Amino acid sequence: MSIASSSSSLQALRGSLRPSATCRRALNIEFKPFRPVDDAALEPRPPRPSTPTFFTGRPAYHTAISELETALLSAQQSLRSAHIYPLPSTLPTPQPPRAAWHPAPVLSNLLGTQLKTNAHRRILDLLNELHALRHVAALSEQAGVENVLDGVLARYEREERGGVEGGKKAAEVDEWGRAYGMGRRKESSARVWIVPSPSGRRLLDAHSEGEAVATVEEGEGEVQAEILVNHVPIAIHFPKITDRETVLRPLRLSGLIGAFNVFALARGGGTSGQAGAVGLALARALVVMRSETEEVLQRDGALMRDTRMVERKKTGSAKARKKYAWVKR
Amino acid sequence: MASTSKAAIPAVRTTLSSKAVAIPARRTFAASIRSFAEGDAAESSTARSTAPRGAAEVGESTEDAWKRNMEEVREWRRRRDVQRSKLPLFLPPSATAPNAPSPLRLSLSTLLASGAALGHASSALHPAYLPYTYGTRSGLSIIDLDQTLPILRRTAALVRDLVKEDGVVMIVGSRAGHGKLLKRARERMGDSAYVVEEWMPGTLTNSVTFFGVAPMQNQAHLPDLAIFLNPSENLGAIRECTAKNIPTIGIVDSDTDPRIVTYPIPANMESIRTAELILSTLSIAGEEGRRLRRQARIARTGGQSRR
């Protein structure tokens, strides 16, 4: 242990503390003089942009795009190694369940930029492709791939507000056995309640069994079905036969005339407009009461809201389409 | 020939457990190539069963039918892979280039092979580009690669030194094929590189609108260097860089004024291969710069650096 006279005191101390060669070999250690790690000593890096896609001007959007593309590639690779991808062209393509993504404004908020058509479409294409791949993975029991894709797609999926796909709650028959329907035509609107009538029991039972039953004869005396529109019988409210036929058409198509008591409240418009509104409302109520009638009524177009409205009059014309007489000079 | 190849592949519809795979004693080259290329077509043509492929049987849902058929297909594919592994793999000699030169060992022939020397029409030659032109051939201006090579090497050294000093490089490439190149460059250079595929005007000069005032206060809203893979199509971006005193590197073609960028690299801008070559040279230089920076940091802090 010798103290070097020419070197500084610190170096001398360091030299004295260093174990000898034999000692080092015996202990088999590498001597490193201890220096406490000081935060100030570590050189701070110059400030740099926060995200890798900073200079694109739309960092969140481009990060999302690259993340989705990476997820797609890796999922395809996993499925390829499991001999699922590419899907055989001879088999029918499995249709994934209907995907509900966030609407464009929400996506724009999520991705921090006002999404225009092309950008939105690009995102949607990627999401739909990932969704289809997830369905394929689910069908082929590739849980790993499915879980990864679930994680990737979670932030873009809209939560269903409960109920069926499409978000609409199905209407039901209420506690008194009534079905309700609402309809509109031109400027009229109507509300209709239908309830099984006493005489209609036989008809309804036969209908549910799928038998074709002739409508109840007038003379049999069993008919107790009433149709009231604005508190008056239908024949008084709608003097014209065509209007009555419009109202009764859904019942005729489904073969359930006389099966229900109908109570309708119509407001607005004129006679045929109210008749159309009552007819639509009745058809909707019928579907609520008996869902098997939907097919027939759909095919007839009875469930379609007739959106034709009175066309406005234009300037320079006598009416909407009628022009003034052409004058040569 | 066709029948031997088809007979050799097992039919999908039969029960697979009972039958063994018949490996042909001799396969002709054409047959092996055809079965390789056909893939699904082969498996569809062998099964001459009565039911249409993929159809659901009675009482089976479409999903179950798909699953069942998919299982058969997967089994078929597994067996095909087993067969393939036993076959001698045919590769033409050009498939594996024995000594592919790394971008660092860039040579004139590599640049030439990528099509870097092909400029635009000689009628469109920019007067300021004349010093970089070798001549004219077939109505095209030929770019002098004897000048391009040392320029590229000097530019690579610039990138390396900048990244070594922990600078920020922004790479802009707005053509269709540039995406992959930018991704690879980003992988090499890590957080020193920021890639842009589509330039939003005002990103540098109007950054307050895009990002708010915070990055500007931290002085983290500008790069230290900009590399353009197609500068003539991103003139707005170049103007913003010059307005903010950011040096620019760009691949300029013969129809462009090379003075729009600080360090022009005279080469064919339209060729993706040339862009790949040039960008990989620069990004590998950047990677080297990172390595040197790390080494220097370790040397300075005596091996106690956290990074």
Automatic annotation (TrEMBL), chain A:
Domain of life according to the entry: Eukaryota
Annotated keywords: Ribonucleoprotein, Ribosomal protein
SUPFAM superfamilies, alphabetized: Ribosomal protein S5 domain 2-like
UniProt cross-references to PROSITE patterns, sorted A to Z: RIBOSOMAL_S9
GO biological process, any: translation
Molecular functions (GO terms): RNA binding; structural constituent of ribosome
One Pfam family it belongs to: Ribosomal_S9
GO cellular component: mitochondrial small ribosomal subunit
Family classification: Belongs to the universal ribosomal protein uS9 family.
Protein's name in the database: Ribosomal protein S9/S16-domain-containing protein
Biological source species: Dioszegia hungarica
TrEMBL record, chain B:
Keyword NAD (UniProt): no
Any Pfam family: Ribosomal_S2
UniProt keyword annotations, A-Z: Ribonucleoprotein, Ribosomal protein
Annotated InterPro entries: Ribosomal_uS2 (IPR001865), Ribosomal_uS2_bac/mit/plastid (IPR005706), Ribosomal_uS2_flav_dom_sf (IPR023591)
Record-level Gene Ontology MF annotations: structural constituent of ribosome
Stretches for region Disordered: 38-63
Taxonomic superkingdom: Eukaryota
Cellular component annotations (GO), alphabetically ordered: mitochondrial small ribosomal subunit
Family per similarity comment: Belongs to the universal ribosomal protein uS2 family.
Entries under HAMAP family matching the protein: Ribosomal_uS2_B
Annotated protein name in UniProt: Ribosomal protein
Record organism: Dioszegia hungarica
